[in-house]
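Bug report

Summary: structure tokens for DegT/DnrJ/EryC1/StrS family aminotransferase differ between web form and batch submission.
Environment: batch mode, default settings.
Steps: 1) Submit the sequence below via batch. 2) Compare with the web form result.

Sequence submitted:
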Amino acid sequence: MSVNVTKAYLPPLEEYVGYLEGIWERGWLTNNGPLVQRLEAELSSYLGNSLVQFTSNGTIALQIAIKALELSGEIITTPFSYVATTTAILWENCEPLFVDIEDRTFCIDAAKIEAAITPRTTGILATHVYGYPCDVLAIEDIARRHNLKVIYDGAHAFGVQVHGRSLLSYGDLTTCSFHATKLFHTVEGGAIIMQDKALARKVWLYKSFGHIGDEYFSLGVNGKNSEFHAAMGLCNLPRVESFIVARRQLAELYRQELAGLPLQFPQPHEPSLAYNYAYFPVLFENEEAMHRVKDALGAEEVNTRRYFFPSLNKLPYHTGAACPVSEDASVRVLSLPFYQDLNPDDVRRICTLIKKALS
Ligand SMILES: *Cc1c(COP(=O)(O)O)cnc(C)c1O
């Protein structure tokens, strides 16, 4: 039987229909409706009272974030992320300056950031890769000393706690994606998470065409999300902790079954991390071994994903400086099937196939 690499959770249909009945009664479908407001309030309390703006996706959240922090010139960023991290920078007419990653966490190497800063650098945009935190304290310190803004792409980081607070509460702001493939999803959706009220108002205006009624304040775009998407979020949010528990058990099973093989897993620095088990990536010894496993699993209808590939300094439409650690990781990494209701027997079967392919 075929196995997907991710699978979106769908709540009991009656529960979602309950929200639909309310939408039908009110006839209020979008534009900051009551379910959007409620989801924003529930997300805010889940994230330790950060200010939350729900957006139509995680990519527009990144673009609005760059605009709202008035970044220009160069933005220091990671080459090991989903392509949207880099394209958001290019779309906002800024230049991505790639700084290589750490080989343990696959996040940007904070120790290499300072050497890359130039007089044209205005900000840092870093991704918490697979939900493992960037070195947020070191990055905060660098940003303060060089007067740079910090954006985190937290698309993988929902539900992660570090140093006793939500990982999404760090930086000048953090963006999130609630796409159907993510741990917590609203079908399509995203958010901008911040602490500063004036900034939150600016973000709200930017996502709402920059005007309130007949009063026009700023440039804007349509980054809003709908009542239907908020309803999915309200169904799924109370289940996030149970998703994490189920995923932790599956991750432990994978680790047990794969023990002793020539593989590498990400290793977070922070021992007190409360991790969300967003993905299950493995690094093989070389690209050839990765392909051998990918093909062997594919032949049994087990889907995997080269996540992330390519290293973003190698995109055909934008070439950045060499980043050897990222380039090497991107050709060896494979994300294995991983979602909360993945059958443990499938995990065992996948691991047997991997062992055979590597033997
Ligand atoms: C999914 C993802 C995005 C894009 O989010 P969308 O909601 O699909 O627009 C951006 N960055 C990272 C790291 C992602 O994983």
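Above is the batch result. After comparison, the two runs are identical; trailing whitespace caused the diff. The radius of gyration is 21 Å. The CA atoms of residues 161 and 274 lie 5 Å apart.
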